[in-house]
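Table S2 (continued). Query chain:
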Amino acid sequence: MTLPLIPPMLATPGSLPPAAQDARWAYETKQDGQRVVAYLEGDGSILLRARSGEEITGAYPELRPLGEALGATPAVLDGEVLALDEQGGADFQLLQSRMGLAHAPGKAARQAAKVPVHLVLFDVMHLGGHDVTALSYALRREQLERLGLDGPFWSTPAALIGHGEQALQATREHGLEGLVCKRLDSVYEPGVRSRAWIKIRNMHSEDVVVGGWLPGKGRLSGLPGAVLVGQRAAGRLRYVGNVGTGWSESERSQLAELLRAAATDVCPFDPVPPVTGAHWVVPRLVGEVRYSTRTRAGLLRQPSWLRLRADLAPEDASADMPNDPT
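Corresponding output:
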């Protein structure tokens, strides 16, 4: 490869910029996919690298024609590969069926026919033989949009200048993962987690019942490393995931005492989840957790513990669950 290897710039978790600075920022939808840097050599070829630097071109054969989209102009582009559900929303669980197939071309081709991906492009770092990382975000976006990269499996969505509060609210109303705020005057910092890019993740919270726990390791030895949680649906306790973050040391110690007092040999979940090394408890503890989205099977993605809900009975932690995958 003749193009320079450029690791992607990363965003820092945070909140919206102050209202007085709103006009100095651009706002892009935070996508729930796989970060990809695309290398177009200008000879019709394309090479895709994941955030880790691993080459993953073979996993996404439908993106190969992008290599011809700019003719003889070489470029390095930043974007996110998505798998879209029937409603047109990004579905990370669908995407997982496409990931990891870079060295299995036959299987990758079959999966591409079943679950095609879409590459959302949002930055350019090298163009026409010139490094453009030192240019401002605003100038890079102008150059990117002039390329007109909109095809059957890729697109360049517009960024919104200003109006951050409205942009964030729109992502919540449409059930999107969140928002990325990018300072208009910011340069591209390869491999750096920068405050010039701020990511805001839309999170949900729900009540869950604790049905078990997994032992902690290292400094957490003797304490719960994670709790196994469920919600009532159709008269039974359905497992919805394990939660391993969100406690202070004292809260984790308090939780350990409550779990020991509720120990049982009977798994309270129906069906029994495929979890190795679990300790079961009588399902009477209710907690509130925060999470990003649910999988199609109803599992919580990226859950973290918020608080115990001593004011609620286990029957109060119920939810509308998807069809039973079993």
